[in-house]
Amino acid sequence: APAAAFELSNEIRTDAVATLAQLRAQHISASMLSGDNEANCAALAEQVGIDYTAASLPEAKPEVLRQAKASKRGVMFVGDGMNDLPALASADVSVATLETTDLVKSKADVILLTRRLGALCDFLTVGRRSRTIMTQNLIWALAYNSMAIPLAAFGFAPPWAAALGMSISSLIVMLNATRILNTPIHFSNTGQ
């Protein structure tokens, strides 16, 4: 007769529901792509409120991502196991969780340094702010150089003024770039 019985279940991360709600608020759709069976995926998906695809083999996951790419602007895949390696390689942005293996981490573009899924929202916020600041810096550099270079080239500005102007322009770009440090981080500021 059996000496013991074990029942295994998936543990839902404490901030999973809040993270999904925040992603939806940013008009980002999320879905679960799992190799687990239909019953387990359905139960988990119902608890957190997410669409899902169950019983996906590792080699089938990239095809699901390709279909998603065809209908959307970009696909980010968050993986935590060896079976996610093909999907991590085919995603536009691949994210590995903290507790996964070193091999999976080595194939990911981003590694979450916390167990909190809310770090994904912070990552997206910092990414958007970085793009905005880079665009501002490029526009400033283009505008300044399109005016200053002709002035210096045709002798309308003395060399010392051109050198000073270029230094000030570089300083403005650097100071604008430091604004990324003021990006608010809301979701990953826990000890986990």
| CA(first)-CA(last) distance | 42 Å
Shape: elongated
Helix content: 40-55%
Give average pLDDT, whole number. Answer: 90
Query: What is the gyration radius calculated from CA atoms?
Result: 24 Å
Number of strands: 5
Regions with little confidence, pLDDT below 50 for 5+ residues = none
Number of helices: 7
What amount of the residues lies in strands?
5-15%
Element pattern in H and E: HEHEHEHEHEHH
Q: Structural class per helix/strand content?
A: mainly alpha
Report the sheet with the most strands, covering strand number, pairing sense and barrel closure.
Answer: 3 strands, parallel
- The side-by-side strand order for the widest beta sheet comes to 3-4-5
Q: What report would you give on this structure?
A:
- The protein has helices at residues 16-25, 38-48, 61-71, 85-90, 102-107, 119-153, 159-177, and strands spanning 31-33, 51-53, 76-79, 93-96, 110-111.
- The protein has 192 residues and is mainly alpha-helical.
- Helix 2 links the parallel strand 1 (31-33) and strand 2 (51-53).
- The protein is elongated and about 95 Å long.
